Automatic annotation (TrEMBL):
The lineage of its organism: Bacteria, Bacillati, Actinomycetota, Actinomycetes, Streptosporangiales. It comes from Thermomonospora umbrina. Gene3D superfamilies: MFS general substrate transporter like domains (1.20.1250.20). This is Putative MFS family arabinose efflux permease. One of its GO terms (molecular function) is transmembrane transporter activity. Its main location: membrane. Keywords: Cell membrane, Membrane, Transmembrane, Transmembrane helix. It is found in: Cell membrane. Coiled coil: none annotated. CDD domains: MFS_MefA_like.
């Protein structure tokens, strides 16, 4: 599992730059980038509940294998488009939709598979290790992707993502997980069970609502605003690859911290870690050079992984395993609600108002979302389960 996460995350690092810069090099502009990234995000929003049902019904590693194979084929198509140097925006958008479908299947399953593999207090260490694995791969991918895109073009970066996903699928297929044995009912009934478990926990849906704002802003910043700013004479794809690589390095450090830090109130600690995610945007708004942005992204990466580890572990320890993927799919649905809108408007707004004012607005939104989440009593008071 560790090796699979390293490999697929390295591919994701290549794909992240390939999709943005490939769309720009095809001549579709900032608006085209926004549309392509929104097309990737919308299926994640629409199909994540179905992904949760599938992940609770079948062996989760098989769901992950299927998602990786679908994504690998799609990235091969994107590589062909970018290498050809000419492709209609509609084709790129259609392939981006398929990438989103693969992610919608992958996300609920990967969140639930830790509960299949380990139990109790060791889950926090397992979550931290898997996030370190993802960070390691992402560092490799992002560090090399800027060089690859600048040297031979985004098509080759997209192709490398496809190869990495094929390797990941082969590794995941070797996991020996047992099939889930709980009784099955209709998909709607299973969704209702997941919703009841989700809605019964105030802290869960409050963080999902906070995530809707935070993920929308971060997606717009990483996918549109940051690359657009760098393309305006601030360092280009190589500099942005280094900035994004520093964020990934931070997530590696954050995984190390999260493996050893057990706060008494993990959800409150997680929310406090959200505020620093807005700092890189405020620094970009101030016209900071890319090395300054890289340092801020390093800190943001530390906070992201520590937040994600506390969050995932608390959910896994609080929700029954047989409904875990469905509950996580409801969580992801809430968290992803605004992501397509953020991606759609980021390009046009940045083109009209400028990248710096757009980034400033995003940073302030993140700070506001973090402050509002702390108004929830359960967020402030939920304690880590006591263990022997």
């Amino acid at each position: 599992m560790f090796a699979a996460r390293v490999t697929s995350s390295a591919g994701h690092g290549f794909g992240r730059l390939a999709l943005t810069w490939g769309t720009l090099e095809l001549g579709h502009g900032a608006g085209g980038v926004s549309l392509v990234l929104a097309c990737e995000a919308i299926p994640q929003l629409l199909l994540v509940l179905a992904g949760g049902i599938i992940s609770d019904r079948f062996r989760r590693n098989r769901v992950l294998v299927g998602a990786d194979l679908l994504s690998a084929c799609t990235w091969a198509g994107l590589a062909a488009c970018f290498m050809a140097g000419a492709a209609p925006l509609s084709l790129v958008c259609g392939l981006a939709v398929l990438v989103g479908v693969g992610t919608a299947l992958f996300s609920p399953a990967v969140e639930g598979i830790v509960a299949d593999l380990v139990e109790g207090e060791t889950r926090q260490v397992a979550n931290a290790l898997l996030r370190q694995a993802a960070a390691t791969g992402l560092i490799i991918g992002l560090a090399l992707s800027g060089v690859v895109v600048a040297a031979v073009g985004p098509g080759w970066a997209a192709a490398l993502n496809g190869v990495a996903l094929l390797v990941s699928a082969g590794l995941l297929a070797r996991l020996g997980l047992q099939a889930h044995t709980h009784g099955r009912s209709s998909p709607l009934a299973e969704l209702r069970v997941g919703w009841r478990e989700f809605a019964a926990r105030q802290w869960l849906w409050v963080i999902a609502l906070q995530g809707a704002v935070v993920i929308a802003v971060i997606s717009a910043f990483n996918g549109v605003i940051g690359p657009l700013y760098m393309s305006q004479g601030h360092g280009g794809p190589r500099a942005w690859g280094l900035v994004a690589g520093c964020e990934a390095l931070g997530t590696l450090v954050g995984g190390r911290i999260a493996a050893h830090w057990y706060p008494l109130r993990p959800i409150m600690a997680a929310v406090l870690l959200i505020a620093p995610l807005g700092v890189p945007m405020l620094l970009l708004a101030a016209g900071s050079a890319w090395p300054v942005l890289a340092c801020a992204m390093l800190v943001a990466g530390v906070c992201q992984t520590t937040f994600a580890t506390f969050w995932a572990t608390t959910v896994q320890n609080s929700v029954p395993n047989e409904v875990l993927s469905r509950v996580r799919s409801w969580d992801l649905l809430g968290a992803l609600t605004l992501a397509p809108l953020g991606l759609l408007v980021a390009g046009p707004v940045a083109a009209t108002a400028g990248t710096e004012p757009t980034a400033a607005g995003g940073g302030l939104l993140i700070l506001t979302a973090a402050a509002l989440a702390l108004l929830s009593p359960q967020v402030r008071t939920l304690r880590r389960p006591s263990t022997n």
